[in-house]
Amino acid sequence: MTETMSAPAPSVLDLSGLTERQQLAFYGALFALAAADNSIDERESQLILESLRLDALSEDARQRAFALSISPPSLETCLDILRDTDEPIRRALMLNLVDVALADDEIEPGEPQTLDKVRSELGITPEELAAMHTYAYRVRQQANGEPVPHPLACPPELDA
Questions:
Q1: Which of 13, 47, 99, 154 could bridge 103 with an S-S bond, Cβ 3.0-4.6 Å?
Q2: Within a 10 A sphere around the Cβ of 84, how many other Cβ atoms?
Q3: Is residue 11 part of a domain?
Q4: Quick check: is 15 in a domain?
């Protein structure tokens, strides 16, 4: 008999400790991954838009956040901005990128290579990426169509 493992209840990531530029880079990275196949699937877009936490941002930053969905920045630019953030932010970014990749219920061609490149640039091991993938998948399965709070924070079980 196979035991089904459940994922810890997801919690929302707090990005308030980041600068506006870093917050926009976080969201921009999500849109950049979604657009990697030259189009953003409606489910990917909806997931990212639900992730936006704009309350603490200036009006200009809010407008720029929505503009990211129309014209995503390069993933490399976003990673350059976020590369020196604290490890929990980098790990949460990786988890949320995996979650975006899973949003349309399929991993598109090129997404595994892109995720692996990001993983390497953010200092995350292949094993940690695999655990994040499993966690994001289980959270989706357990939600049974109910909304999941976003952006996802890494649960302690995924901490290095």
A1: 47
A2: 9
A3: no
A4: no
